[in-house]
């Protein structure tokens, strides 16, 4: 595979969490990933964790990663729920929350009576017909229906299985109500920009590393980041022949990507001196 | 409203059932509809009942309509399930059935082991996350995923409420699997043609009467039938200003449409003689 992605300077990284730092359903880090994060810090390469995880609060996610051996600060995590929370407060919105129960604390102090918008997270088993139908009916009753979704992921890995993600239910509600969702998560450009801005960088300086060929790799490339696909998480061999998305590189895992970046940097620094 | 739709000869009718013959959730016929059907027969105007009802077998649907006072034969009803059944047998397909339990008898003798296709009906409360996820996983595991859906309706009326229809779940599975469903129901052209062919007519000779602005009216117009919207069933006042679909006429109910057709025919016959 071409090393072209290394030739232009890499000033920062965006790192997906699930499938890159740990496998969903397995309670350990992916081999080499804890060390890879340490090496990025040692070498002064800035990065942000850019996740579409919406089954738990950011606090809970950070605690989980620390249990796996990661050293990180909550401020380094860009997750959809705080972004949605910010939007709800700013626009004085009262949501009907079609989300996973463990995420509810993130919205505990937000008025949810007499809903004037619908918020979709990865509700998983809680995507019952009655809950989805209620979201549909509320949208239908609104003069200007507002559907906010914490991503458009098609599926993710849970244990050894690929399972349906929130994007499918977002698409269902969009179809039934003739309405486009506002996406507050990957692959939305505004969402990626929040992460990139927080490092004071430009998209073309940044490499996104993830296991989702669409939201991570395709989403990054659509806004002029480089997009790397890892062969961990929900990666499937067929992703390597995806009809529309061609990753800038496919790496075995995060450690592989970080190795290549640091090796290339060392060689470049040597030839500079 | 223009009477232009009456000017070209009407050689036959397609009639939606739910919302035209009876209101879903109410156990009586819509006022005037039983008599309207009788008058069509008396006047020798051929028609077919063209429904997307997939919560019960055709036998059960015919029995229900007879209880409401309708005289009809099973052969006059064009419903998705028998069409899907025919396709499954002809193509030797083994379905995973994401359908309402009351419809299962229609497929009782079809091998459902080791599924090589997914069939979606209006499963309503049985659209659990686990059932939809299983359909998703099966499609993902197939070399050539085959998703068959008994329509693409967005919503229908149940009692006094509009509720989410199978089209939303079809859209969800299409999105998650990057695959287009084969639609065996309105508004699929092949499906409408089955009904039109059974009367030995051409689309331009036929008027479709229904309460679904998209599948009934829009679907009919897309294949050069005339499409009439009734103000019963799931009709909403906002349908009269639909952004893309403009019905050839909007009538109060089936009786209103039949009155207009028979009156116009009587006048035309008188002026002929």
Could you walk me through the main structural features you see in this protein, from its secondary elements to its overall organization?
With 273 residues, chain A is α/β, with parallel strands linked by helices. The first copy, chain A, has a domain at 11-17 and 47-65 and 76-202 and 222-234: Rossmann fold (3-Layer(aba) Sandwich). Chain A contains 9 helices and 12 strands. In chain A, strands 3-2-1-10-11-12 form a 6-stranded parallel sheet. In chain A, helix 3 (58-67) links the parallel strand 2 (47-50) and strand 3. The longest helix of chain A is centred in the last third of the chain and has 19 residues, at 254-272. Chain A is elongated and about 65 Å long. The model of chain A has no long low-confidence stretch (mean pLDDT 95).
